[in-house]
Amino acid sequence: MKTTIKYLIMTTVFGMVTANAQSASREDDKCNEIAESVKAQVEEDKSETLEIVNKAVSENKECAATIVAAAIQASNASNALVGQIVQTAGNAAPGQINNIVSAATGAAPLAAAQINTAAQTVQQGGNAAGGSGGGGAPNPLDAPGATPAGQATGANDGGSSQGSAGNSSGGQGNPGVNPTPAVTNVNQ
Asked: Mean per-residue pLDDT for 53-60?
């Protein structure tokens, strides 16, 4: 009797493991199909890369990493465009940002700075302030290719009175970008 129960339990566990593996395999297949579709669309019209990524990730959040890698490869993305792709995908699927960053870093390791800036923007609320017109982070979909992720809008676009003189970081560095101040303990 003990032997029968032991085999019954082993068979049940094996069946559950096999079912989970098959389910994961089907999801991988689905993501790969979507990535191939994204790749074909981007290769056909590189100027629509961000819109293609946004639509694909919005509809298939679980495939965000695969979609990002495919878009970066198909577009031969510059470092700035890699950052915009990461920000666009992250805004569409904020819960997938770690997977998106990992895939983007694998596809474009030289764009690590832009990837990290885009990820930080997404984690800080992305475009909650309404895109580039609302004073928040620039939305790459507002004007594809116009403002790389992480750069201030308005400093060089002619539409803002804030220039390097308005930079609260002391005048040096990137106009309009305020670095995080260092925290010091004055009680020591």
From this structure: 97
